[in-house]
Write a structure and sequence with these properties.
CATH architecture of one domain: 2-Layer Sandwich
Low-confidence stretches: 306-316, 325-333, 350-371
Number of helices: 13
Strand content: 5-15%
Number of strands: 5
Strand order of the largest sheet: 3-2-1-4-5
């Protein structure tokens, strides 16, 4: 500016020397003539007006909502807070919520996490297409340890059942599973880890399947298990249990008995299903997502037919056809002892398996299941 005003140089020459536009030089000269030495001071770039600026009352409401959700053990992220604020007719973006929380010191910096793109995401297309299950440890106020099992619908994140036990057994798994079926219908498949209460396929023993596996087979429900050392396979129910524990830790007073713990679990299940929006299902509640589409059903599998009581008769010589009559009509006709030994040798293998007594594989077996209580038989054989 002094080069133009005092030295008498042209604006174009000064603009080329300082590598700026000629218009910018003209603007600075006009400012110097109006303000004098004050034109050399740096100026704020803040706009004259900010019509989208958040008000002080909305800022205070965001901070208070954050404190309330945190104190109650609920998720207090920007997405959840935006959902609650929208119900109060406070329209703010998630980026604004995060900025307000950072300025108020209500957000702790966390280390850089593994990007979400590194995980292979999957989700069932329909409700009841797949149920996830897992159990976790919860300590009572008096120090006693308990175990809580959860059943979660993979498509909608709907909490089907949350039940607390002193120690979970395979009978508890089977009972809670059948109770969930009575309320919501059977799933097409289940997804669990490789715990002994869920499967014995990887135990290395010869004891056969457990009670829960027999129930799944009886109801034509496909069983899926995650690979060992990969807890992300059942990540939905794992994350659900994390939310559950966080909520329980904020309850006052803490449960001292199993009955008090179960009452809190029922309260949390209602809140989780009907009041809490879920980010993974487009900010809907699990109950709304569970009821929005038709439910999947198990695919009935044909069972092996009844094995033949005797092996077919072999021809005596090569090139001669086998006789049409029963082999016992020709052999051991007059010797009862040899006839009995022949029957024993020809007994089919695995005759003790329950799949061989069924002559019609499409008709359910009317006999009671050997390992399921009688009160559940109507569920297995509704007709």
């Amino acid at each position: 500016m002094l080069a133009v005003v005092s030295a008498g140089r042209s604006q174009a020459e000064v603009a080329r020397e300082y590598d700026v536009s000629r218009g910018w030089v003209s603007k600075l000269i006009a400012r110097y003539r109006d303000e004098g030495e004050a034109a050399f001071r740096p100026r704020s770039r803040r706009p004259k007006s900010s019509p989208n600026r958040i008000s002080d009352s909305d800022r205070d409401r965001i901070c208070q909502l954050r404190r309330d959700l945190t104190s109650q053990g609920h998720d207090a992220g920007a997405d959840t807070m935006q959902w609650f604020l929208a119900k109060e007719r406070v329209e703010v973006s998630t980026s604004t919520i995060w900025r307000v929380l950072r300025e108020a010191g209500l957000v702790k910096r966390s280390p850089k996490k593994k990007p979400r793109s590194a995980y292979k995401r999957f989700a069932a297309e329909l409700p009841n297409e797949m149920w996830q299950s897992d159990f976790t440890h919860i300590r009572l106020a008096d120090g006693h340890d308990t175990e809580t099992i959860s059943w979660l619908d993979d498509h909608s994140r709907y909490a089907l059942d949350i039940t607390a036990f002193v120690r979970i057994t395979v009978n508890d798994v089977d009972t809670t599973f059948l109770t969930s079926i009575e309320e919501n219908g059977p799933p097409a498949a289940t997804l669990t880890d490789n715990g002994m209460v869920y499967t014995t396929r990887f135990s290395g023993g010869t004891g056969g399947r457990n009670q829960f596996e027999h129930t799944l087979d009886w109801l034509h429900i496909q069983q899926r298990n995650g690979a060992p050392g990969h807890p992300t396979t059942t990540g939905k129910v794992e994350r659900f249990q994390q939310t559950l524990k966080k909520w329980l830790s904020r309850q006052d007073p803490q449960p001292r008995t199993l009955a008090e713990l179960q009452a809190l679990l029922d309260q949390f299940r209602h809140y989780y299903n009907h009041e809490r929006p879920h980010r993974g299902i487009n900010r809907r509640t699990p109950a709304a997502a569970y009821a929005s589409r038709p439910k999947a059903t198990p695919q009935r599998r044909a069972r092996p037919p009844l094995a033949s009581p005797l092996r077919p008769h072999r021809p005596h010589r090569k090139g001669h056809p086998a006789p049409q009559q029963h082999p016992l009509q020709d052999r051991h006709r007059t010797n009862p002892q040899q006839k009995a030994r022949h029957h024993a040798r020809q007994r089919p293998r695995h005759h003790h398996r329950r799949t061989h007594h069924r002559r019609n594989p499409t008709v359910p077996d009317p006999r009671p299941h050997p390992q399921i209580p009688a009160t559940k038989q109507k569920l297995l054989n509704p007709n």
